[in-house]
């Protein structure tokens, strides 16, 4: 990614102190000139300034004040530039760090800096939420970009969608915890006693990802999408036919496991369904019967599919 073509001498201006003010001075001199370029797309200095101002305004609306720390966990993409200069325009302090860092490294940086917010890719949000309790000053997880990769294979994975009324939960976080708890019990019944769930995102066994949970809210309903590995999946063929940005491949290829690898037995799709079915009925004290989706459930399902279809 190219950034800021030209030098101070070529600009012919005296640059003020402070990166936020410096950007404003450069914009005044080079409004329509190319400032950022990535993969065939470019942004002018004026567009960069507008994006940075949006970031600054958004952070300010969340209560971020001059001097506050804002962590940045973004790869080499335009959103990093917009976020970095937005933080400067607000007068806050940017705390960028490597996107390949794992849980302990991230929690140390967040604790040490006292960051009140972090800006990261959508695909990193679950990891941040898992260690959020270790970062007491962190108030906001701000996601950007749609660089998320979820593995699914007809032979190796099972994809479950639960449509739940929001009134049954105190918050989306409560929905995450409820669904996570039900999955842990389901895995335990299928012979994976080491299954555990700490916070939003993943079910793990012995430190390896066993399942992914994504919860979205649409018109009074929580749509819970669950992807579980029944058996180990060979991901190499996928990367031979599609290009995946390095930062996404690194995160996507975190250690993964499966019910078969952990229990020594491959459950059938029906066995997994019946186990989850029983746990949902017991935990939520409801009676589930096979049938068609209701009108509201079908609407939420179709909207969710439409939204996911726009994801890159």
Give structural notes.
- The chain is built from twelve helices and twelve strands.
- Strand 9 and strand 10 (202-205) form a beta hairpin.
- Helix 2 (19-30) crosses helix 4, helix 3 (45-61) crosses helix 4 and helix 7 (172-189) packs across helix 11 (269-284).
- The chain folds into two domains: 2-144, Rossmann fold (3-Layer(aba) Sandwich); 157-308, 2-Layer Sandwich (BirA Bifunctional Protein, domain 2).
- The radius of gyration is 22 Å and the shape is elongated.
- Helices cover 41% and strands 21% of the residues.
- The two termini are 19 Å apart.
- It has helices at residues 8-11, 19-30, 45-61, 78-90, 103-113, 125-130, 172-189, 236-241, 246-252, 259-263, 269-284, 295-308; strands spanning 2-3, 34-38, 41-44, 69-73, 93-96, 117-121, 140-144, 157-165, 195-196, 202-205, 208-218, 221-229.
- By secondary structure, the protein is α/β, with parallel strands linked by helices.
- The strands form three sheets. A five-stranded antiparallel β-sheet has the order 8-12-11-10-9. Strands 5-4-6-7 form a four-stranded parallel β-sheet. Strands 1-2-3 form a three-stranded antiparallel β-sheet.
